[in-house]
Each structure stands twice: as structure tokens, then as C-alpha cells.
């Protein structure tokens, strides 16, 4: 327990300065893009949260497969918390993307492959979270929700490849554009800011995941103890 | 600049919202634990 607290503290000591450094990098250090101006800086948080949302859903997929093979409360809890964080980050990705779209293409929404597949991904995980709230034995709910978790995880590569497969011109391919995947690319300062954004948001994800799982595990223990006590009193 | 402000405000608001949800869960858990302790002491 002490070691767990120490790890959480270390994470927090890394996370807080990282957030301030990230804000400095985004708003002061990174260059202003010539065509879009300041609005381009949405990109750092948009791409960062999108990557971490993908990571969160891969974690859901991983724990869902494991839960299906061998049901276990801890795995079920980790999958649920990861899905919650994934939903939050996907919503941020969509909202920041919509704001970007409004600024650069004069529209809040376009039925473009990347946007549609991301929206479907969000709906799958919202459904997944609703299933987890259903009444019944946790083993049954765990199995059913795990199937949804895996379906959502399989959708992640489709979201990533959507702009390449359907050749969308609206959503730019930032890295590895073209047939030999040598096109695209951004300025070194922009790349450094983007990488730091991914790092900071990943630390935030790990921190939230640990905190959320810790609360859920305790809640499960309390629920078990309560039921035991009630049964004892009844008998 | 307005759009940049909207995007970052929405981002931090959502993250703060989730942290508040976790905080509320922790508070209700503490209440339940206290209740459990009271029940145990009454036994």
C-alpha cells in the first residue's frame, strides 16, 4: 500500500510540472503556423488526447480478452476505468477537432471517415459503460461488456487508418504521407511539443487510471463486507 | 484566438469534470466505510 502511494506521488510530482511545461511549450515556445495562426496550437492537445484515447481503448481490449478467458474483478475494474478515461479523451479529441474544423474549414462537423469512425468508437464505449451499469451478477456483465470492449478495440486501427484507406483530403496525414510514406512531417519545435503533449497526457492517464481503480477496488471490498454483515445480522 | 480558447477551455473542463467525479466517488466511499465501521462497533 505504501509503495502504491509512493508511486502515485511520484506520478503527481512528474505530472504537475509537466502540465506547466506543456502549456509553456504550446503557447510560448512552439512557432506560430503561417496559414492558420494561433488556432493551429489546438493540434497539440487534439493529437495528444487522441493517442491516449487509443491507448486507453487498447488497455480495455487487453483486459477484456483477459476477463473473457479468466474472469477476475481487478481486470474488470481496470477495463472499466480505462474505458471511462478513453471516453473523456475521445470527447476532448472530437470537441477540439470540431473547433479546429470551424476555424479552418468554416464548419463544426463533416461526415468525413476519421470523424465518423471516431464517433462510432465513442458510441461503442458509451454503450460499454452502460452495460457495466446493468443489474446482475458481475461475471455475466463482465463477459457481455468484454465483448463490447473487444469490438471497440478492433475499431481503433480502423479509426487510425480511415484517412489512408478512404483517401480523405480534409483530414491531413501528418506523418508518413503518400505511397512510400515519406511525406508529411512538421517543424522540429512543433514535433517536440507534440511528443511532450503525448507524454504529459499519458502520465495523466496512468494517474487517473490508478486513482480510479483504487477507488473501485475499495468500493468492491466495502460492498462485500456490507453484504457479509447484513447476512450475519439476518441469520 | 477565440477557437483556441474554446478548445483548451473544453479540454480542461472535461478533465476537471472527470477528476471531480473521481473525488465524489471517493467521498461516498469514505461515507460507506464510516457507516460500516459504525455497524461493526454496534455489533
UniProtKB/TrEMBL annotation, chain A:
Q: Which residues cross the membrane?
A: 12-30, 42-69, 76-95, 115-132, 144-166, 190-209
UniProt keyword Nucleotide-binding, yes or no: no
List the membrane topology term(s).
Multi-pass membrane protein
Keywords annotated in UniProt: Cytochrome c-type biogenesis, Membrane, Transmembrane, Transmembrane helix
Gene Ontology MF annotations: heme binding; heme transmembrane transporter activity
Q: Which residues form the Cytochrome c assembly protein domain?
A: 10-171
Q: Does the keyword Plastid apply?
A: no
Regarding protein family, the annotation reads: Belongs to the CcmC/CycZ/HelC family.
The protein, known as? Heme exporter protein C
Q: What species was this sequence derived from?
A: Robertmurraya siralis
Q: Which gene encodes it?
A: ccmC
UniProtKB/TrEMBL annotation, chain B:
**Record keywords:** Membrane, Transmembrane, Transmembrane helix
Q: Where are the transmembrane segments?
A: 6-23
Annotated InterPro entries? Put_ccm
User: Which superkingdom is the protein from?
Assistant: Bacteria
* Descriptive protein name: CcmD family protein
Look up and give the organism this protein is from. Robertmurraya siralis
